[in-house]
Specification:
The two termini are about 40 Å apart. The longest helix is centred in the first third of the chain and has 30 residues. The protein is an alpha/beta fold. Strand 3, helix 3 and strand 4 form a beta-alpha-beta unit.
Length: about 290
């Protein structure tokens, strides 16, 4: 992609997602994800209704009238965006690919975190760690993340979420707010998710296309596996073939939901043709 076109696309995403984060998500994000604790802010005169346990006895003795300590939430957090960039994300039968929606959601979350002065980091993964950007603050840092989400070309097209979760655990020593954005057409990550969720606040955001749920009856057609590149002729007229496909799809989604639920992690489901804004707001409010 030409630099001019890339910058234009980054700017377009910034305008859309920053408006959402400024007017919709920043307050919900702040409420949903708490800081590490309370930190001392100031001392002020005692007012009726104040907790007597907050009285600062040294200052009270000095001025011969009661003063209390005021504390505020220690807000600064770290948000980690873990984004699946395997081959299956380049699929879409509506206006946009899954990859496009994932980029918008990631940008919206990143700007929401910036509104709260939090750090944002990025992990792009396939069946390996393709790119790691350590957490930092600021608009320019978020714009770099958006550029990478748009332009980055992975070396692999397959998926290994367990590998990505192990990398998360090894690099993030302090608690982080973690969003995993993927179609979750993978398995064998239950144990690594269980370990990572003990330290981090993890949410899985599944982005999918309606055409993935059922195989249409189109007769004998060539199909390519987006992750392996393998092409095979499939008889979609066969009801057993269609049923087998749908069964496998349901099993993958059930595994995702059960595994995340068991680990205490959050779940968000959104189709490419649905409003992810509504889905995210509903999730934040339910926390």
């Amino acid at each position: 992609m030409e630099t001019k076109d890339l910058l234009k696309k980054v700017r377009k995403i910034e305008i859309k997602t920053r408006r959402l984060s400024d007017h919709i998500f920043s307050g919900e994000y702040h409420t949903s994800f708490k800081g590490r604790g309370m930190t001392f802010s100031e001392v002020r005169q005692y007012q009726y209704g104040d907790d007597i346990r907050a009285i600062d006895w040294n200052v009270t003795a000095r001025y011969n009238e009661p003063y209390v300590k005021v504390f505020e939430e220690e807000r600064e957090l770290t948000m980690m965006l873990m984004v699946d960039i395997s081959g299956s994300e380049h699929f879409g039968t509506k206006a946009e690919f899954k990859k496009d929606i994932i980029t918008e959601i990631a940008a919206t979350l990143a700007f929401s975190a910036t509104q709260n002065n939090d750090k944002i980091g990025l992990i792009l993964f396939t069946d390996q760690i393709e790119l790691y950007i350590p957490p930092q603050k600021g608009r320019s840092h978020v714009l770099r993340i958006i550029r990478e989400l748009i332009e980055f070309k992975p070396q692999s097209s397959q998926t290994n979420l367990a590998q990505a979760l192990r990398f998360l655990s090894s690099t993030q020593k302090k608690k982080a707010i973690v969003f995993v954005l993927s179609d979750f057409m993978t398995s064998d990550y239950e144990q690594t998710l269980k370990i990572a969720s003990k330290k981090h606040d993890i949410t899985g955001i599944r982005v999918y296309d309606i055409r993935e749920e059922k195989m249409p009856n189109l007769g004998m057609v060539p199909m390519q596996d987006a992750e392996t590149g393998t092409v095979a002729w499939i008889n979609t007229a066969s009801s057993s073939v269609r049923q087998s496909y749908e069964k496998h799809y349901r099993e993958q989604i059930q595994y995702f939901k059960e595994t995340f639920s068991k680990s205490g992690s959050g779940i968000v489901d959104t189709r490419v043709d649905e409003s992810y804004v509504t889905k995210l707001l509903g999730y934040f409010k339910s926390r």
